[in-house]
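Readers of this paper often ask what the protein records in our data store actually look like. Such a record has a labelled line for the sequence and another for the backbone structure tokens. The tokens are whole numbers drawn from a learned vocabulary of local backbone shapes. We quote a single record here, exactly as it is kept in our systems:
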Amino acid sequence: MALTPEGVAEAIENISRLVPALADSIEQWSDLRLDDDQQFEMAHAGKVARWGETSDIDSRMLLNPRRHEDIGNDLWTVFNRVQENTVRGGFKGEGQKRLSRELTNLDALNRVNLSLWNAADGILQAA
């Protein structure tokens, strides 16, 4: 598909329409504190989205912060922590010899990110 000025303008317009809703979601997610079960639910959704239900990856590993900014129990912080760990990989399942690789395929990235977004939104709606 060729990139045209019209296509770029349409994409920018679509994104600009989504920004207010995105900002509202971030604010709501930042205000919601998750208990341990809800954090595990988010991590498990990340594991299933990336590696599948039967993977030997321990979902709790996806809750480990990589940076100081990733420490916290609000939905926005947990979402970001799980998303980064899910996309970056670096985990081994039980009995595996190699670490999982960073996710670089755009279709897979979109699928995982959409699954995580939907899981976070589901946690918000259930709260």
About this structure: The first helix runs from residue 5 to 31.
